[in-house]
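Worked example 2:
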Amino acid sequence: MSYEKIIEFASRKSLFYPAAEIYPDSPAGFWDFGPTGHAIRRKIIESWRKEFVEREEMLEIHGSQILPEQVFMGSGHLKSFHDPIIQCIKCKKFERADKILSETLKKHIPEATPLEELNKLMSENKIKCPKCKGDFSNVSYFNMMVESIVGRGEIKTYLRPEACQSIFLNFSRMVKTMRMTLPQGIAQVGGAFRNEISPRQSITRAIEFAQMEAEVFFDPDKMDEVENWDEVKDYKLRILRLKSSKVEEIKAKDLITKKLVPGKLIAYYMARTQEVWHNFGIPLEKIRFREIDKDERAFYSLATFDFEVETSLGWLELIANNYRTDYDLKNHAQTSKTRLEYDDNGRKIVPHIWEISAGVDRTLFAVLECAFTEEKERTYLKLNRKVAPFHCAIFPLVNKDKMPETAKKILKDLRSNWMEASYDSGGSIGRRYARADEIGIPFCITVDGESLKDKTVTLRDRDSTKQIRIKIDDLVPTMRKLIFENKELKNFGTLI
């Protein structure tokens, strides 16, 4: 599988494509999502919400994307949210020093590497501009915050660079108004903005992107009091430990005995994270948690595990998992002069936070690449049924003999029962099957001449291409079992 094939496929099917593409001077790093791409993206979010937010009984909010300067003084972004950049002296192109070095030296160079060391590596390895072979300037820092203008600009504001700050700012309100008890997750889906100096690799590194954010607030003295621990204690996580080149499968309970994580709460949420992303259709063998060394992780984090998926771009980070301690609440409390505490039966504490910060668009890219399947006679997306753009497609075999009317009545009945269905009456039935398969629709329903006589239709499976004959009256309950219970087609009729 090549990155170029995925991008070509995404463009051809209008899954995603550059924003404002009709204007030639539009800046890089902004993307639009077409009907099918948006539908898959939305299904990923809905599945995350059902499997993660609702099952874990998290509170869900929607925070503002524009926040005042003081917020980012409190969070530390105005001081430390920067990338190490270089500029070609000849063609004036900007690049990230850590990325150029990583690509040239074929090894990971952390972005937190000190400037002096980056400059030394650039000099020792005689790094040249990949575009014009010119020399680069010295490495300097570039702040990635995107400034915004509100009103006449009296109050300085920024577009948020990560969705989590809204959650931290909502903490005291949630405690007061939602009868919040610890541990408690607060989640949201929303946009974030980072002024990438050199956006590349399509939607995996954009200026505007979306995050599925979950921040779990807990009492550090009660980190091992996890209600559903028995559900995951023997679940195996795929871990790449420090200074190791091989992924190990380690049970959640052994993460604690081996002292890889500080307590059960963290092991629990790591297990649930792997389960949910695996259920998006990402094979376990392409998944790993990479343990991050203290010299590379954020200074406020006591433990960091990047959740990564193997793609044509290499191991792509989809989720930042950080033990943020009480850093955020303490700093926002100090800057805003507001108490951000939790009253545990008279004992005032500042909760610690376990962060699960997932990229929506990176997840979409990984899901598409894992689902992209090429066979001798067809190319299709082998998507998990829950994240497919439609549950089924409905076809009249021909556009006569009342077949379209019957097909449209089935379409209406399915939609009124909360099933997502598309309708296609153009071209041969083979071409319509191919179009549905290509965008990942798991089932096709065909109305033919027999349908008008015996009130049955043909129901076809995308992956096996096998079909059964089924009564029209049984379609709704059957589709529910196929989609939401992941039942096999052969359970509902004889294969034909």
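Residues 10 and 136 are 34 Å apart (CA to CA). The chain is about 35% helix and 25% strand.
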